[in-house]
Structure of Major facilitator superfamily (MFS) profile domain-containing protein:
Amino acid sequence: MAYRDVCHQRQRPSLDEILPADGVIDEVAVTSSSASPASISPQSPAAALPRFPVAANPFFEAPAPLALTPPANDVSPSQNYSVFTTAQKRFIVVMVTLAAFVSPLSAQIYYPVMPMLADTYGFNSMAPINLTITTYMLLQGLAPVILGPVSDACGRRLAYILSFIIFTAANNGLALQESYAALMALRCLQSAGGSGTVSFGYGVIADISTPAERGSYTGIMAAGVMIAPALGPVIGGLIASFFGWRIVFLFLALLSGVFLAVYVLFVPETARRIVGDGSVVPKEWWRRPVVQWCTHRALPRTERVQGNGTSPSASTSTNARLHLFNPLSALSILLHADALILISTIGLLLFSNIAILTSTPYLFTVIYDLSTLQIGLCFLPLGVGASLGAIITGKILDWNYRRHASALSLPLDTNRTTDLRDFPIEHARLQAFFPAILLCLATIIPYGFALQASAHISVPLVLQFFNGFATISTTNALNTLLVDLFPDRPATAAAACNLVRCWLGALGAAVVENMLRDMGLGWCFVVLGVVFGLGGAMGWVEYVFGRGWREKRAAGIDESEKKRNGRTATAAGAGGESGICTSTAEEGAKGQAPA
């Protein structure tokens, strides 16, 4: 009997036939009613499903057949997590690291040109120029709250392209502007364009890496972020000294423009709700790099498979529209107790770190009588230490994950994901946190007394090196855990973290001068050490109670999944009686599976 006849004679399947044993539909591929039966593989689960009419949706450019894809982290242990090779992953991580480097670079490169800007506009004090830093940091925290959800909902490429277009245009405007009002407005635009790149980067790393290898990749990106405060003042001072302050902004515009060109040409879309494991080829031009577009177009039409063994129409279902997103969804992350603890801890640690960075120019000028260029060079030890700490801690995080997985007899293949529901991920990440927080305390408390005693300049610089190493080690462990807890919304979670981090950092920069004046050097940094200690205590709270909070959140999500599956089964029964085909695209946020 022909397969066509079998399909026509088959009766509507029961719920038990449709749903697997665990009651969760991993993937459903639904074809349009116009598709020929021959185009449906006998092995395809779509052959056993009833057919429904395609519902019109105003958010689609045109009605299109859709496929239900699994959530980003709902991957079978036997299925590869990502089709990207190790070399491709490394290239992608290098690109997102360069992108994340831009935001702190544009902030730090600005410091050497501030006196020149004050002279240009005829200001007698630095207060108006300092205001541009305050507004920059406020936007640096606020912009990712909107851009992070855009990245999760609409794809990484769209978010990166829009951000770098804004950032490049703002820097060109800053190089040409002639008024203080224009400077203020364009600095806000510059911050809005560049500040989302860090949260995007965490999203990309979550897209392409499993928890077994995620620590190393986040370490690489964190190293790029932390080297910017060391290089920014040096680069800005050299360019401004020889070519003037306008060339500093032209340099940033050139840097971002080159990056944007390379990104558009070569970097693929990685958002799992768009391309799954990376095998789906998106239709929209902004979701394809030029190289992928040319390669795909060169193939015969019969070979243009746009998915993992599914038809093009089915596999590109989630690409058919720009998903709606909630710009306040980043703030909802803070409603979860474990996320609030992690993000608050990161904010407290960065509060003290920014206080050290902000006070360095003034203290080293007064105590050691250094020039502007020499002050810039003094940032190198802290930046180098932070970069080394990020890379080394990333390796330690991966090693500790493998150690826990081996103890639980779990697979260690870095291209296979692991169900983290029964995995002590909090312990695997935070066990690297506690030694680092002790090193933070051991370096920041004597730092202030060394400056107070006018010790040799090598003493505070060595302490800065180890403090930078320890601080980034703590934040790297916390950020990696945050991504592990929200793998379906990594950029949104990172945006929430960025908001708290930047605003607490701005507070640290604002109060450190008063603290130094009222407390003195020694006791000021003792208080900052107490802040580090408070962060360590909050990390211990997460270590003890985090798994319970995570399991409670998972139970709530499981209940939502059961209700949704029940509605799906009811709709399937009604559709089977009518014998007509429809398709529905599940939102990735609704399909959230907890870590």
